[in-house]
Amino acid sequence: MDYISTRGSAPTLDFRAATLAGLASDGGLYVPAKWPQMSADEIRALAGLDYAETAVRVMRPFVEGVLTEDELRGLCRAAYGRFSHDAVTPLVQLDHRHWLLELFHGPTLAFKDVALQLLGQLFEKFLAGGDTNITIVGATSGDTGSAAIEAVAGREHIQIFMLHPEGRVSDVQRRQMTTVLAPNVHNIAIDGSFDDAQAMVKRLFGDEEARGQVTLSAVNSINWARLMAQVVYYFYAAVRLGGPDRPIAFSVPTGNFGDVFAGYVAAQMGLPIAKLVVATNVNDILHRALTRGDYSAGTVTATATPSMDIQVSSNFERLLFDLAGRDGAAITGMMGEFDTNRAMTIPADMLAGARELFSSASIDGDAMALALRWAQEHGGQIIDPHSAVGLAAARALDIDADIPVVTLATAHPAKFREAVERATGVRPPLPARLGNLFDREERYTRLPGDYDAVKAFVLAEAARG
Ligand SMILES: *Cc1c(COP(=O)(O)O)cnc(C)c1O
Q: For a surface tag, which of 145, 275, 366, 368 has the fewest beta carbons within 10 Å of its beta carbon?
């Protein structure tokens, strides 16, 4: 499979190079040159398979030419063997038509493990035996950091530097990062906000001097391999509910548009999906875009669902690329306009195309809390606030009553104990597999909110690596 950039002028890459590159050199995002197809018979044949084998069948066309099927199988078995539930992503029934797809049984209790555990395996495979060392640098407001660290801790040829805003992530989130003591893991607490940390990371990626000394790599959801891994659970869930002989709707708590874009990919591959619901909190640029064509960035409002508190959704560009007939020049123009004005209008024909598959809802704090209580009272489930945003949108969806609606449960409730307790009166216990998180030694470096200090630290530690 070849990978092309959404902006049309970066070189075409194979799967290995696209995975290691992250962002394309023309500022675009890599997508497969065409969507592979699965016939109804091939989808039906997934019904009895376990998660790892389903993953092999769904992902093999995307890695063709770079990994053999057996190599892919080995990586999938290793990645998904680290999940605490044998089904990896089990379905839980809430009422006669609503289901939860639990994506939080990985090592850090958030859905990001599903993709990052595989990405860690892919990085190691691609770098093994060579003399390339990569330096992963990222900023996190919580979930991404710990999932990325767990995925690459102790791996050869990889150093990871994760910046978090000091005092502004929860104790659980911080300890999930700082108690990983592998020598290739470098946690940095920045004096400043998440946006300050993010700005420093972006500056480093554009810094010629830094790029001359280290091979920088990104693990955020612009990385194609992450999206690819997320396509799998749409198939896994659908065949368990009667797919492909019955269409299924999915509701997806959305921030950067990565998870729900994976659902779009599943639909392009041939999975019958009745609707994909883009569920946002009050930071609703995507809801405005999908209802009125108004794609304009505002200021971020802090909510009980911090992993969805975003201004712009990077992966939306991948959908726009398809809606524009895969015209890279058109996307370069649109994104250029957006970068200048922080706003653009989505043309009516593209909007109509999007609305054939997508619908959307913006869910405020009250509606989120109501959904949390509904899951508790009607389905006997304590869910997390992000999943509750998805469930609220799922319950508001106007669709044929015989279509099952699956809400993606993106985090374990114990990760957001305070908000869950406020809504339900129940304080979810930390799962046993986090063990003695609060007794373990922490290790991290405090740095001032100063770019030169961060850069000097990263380059010095990477050179020692
Ligand atoms: C990252 C995250 C999301 C948003 O996913 P996107 O792929 O960015 O849309 C939703 N819920 C939780 C718990 C997350 O960690």
A: 366
Which structure tokens are listed for 199?
Answer: 């700005």
Question: Is residue 394 within 8 Å of 277, Cβ to Cβ?
Answer: yes
Share of the chain above pLDDT 90, in %: 82
Cα separation, 310 vs 288, whole angstroms: 14
Active site residue 415: no
Residues recorded for the chain: 465
Phi and psi at residue 294, to the nearest 5°:
-95, 95
Give the distance, in angstroms, between the CA of residue 105 and the centroid of all CA atoms in the same chain.
15
Rounded to whole angstroms, the Cα distance separating 233 from 372 reads: 23
Average confidence score pLDDT of the chain: 94
Summarize the confidence of residues 211-234 as an average pLDDT.
91
**Phi and psi at residue 212, to the nearest 5°:** -75, -20
Residue at token pair 């004005």:
341
Atom 2 in ligand 1: residue holding the nearest Cα? 307
* Residue to substitute in 102, 105, 111, 358 for testing ligand 1 pocket (most ligand atoms within 8 angstroms of CB): 111
Segment (H or E) for 216: strand 215-217
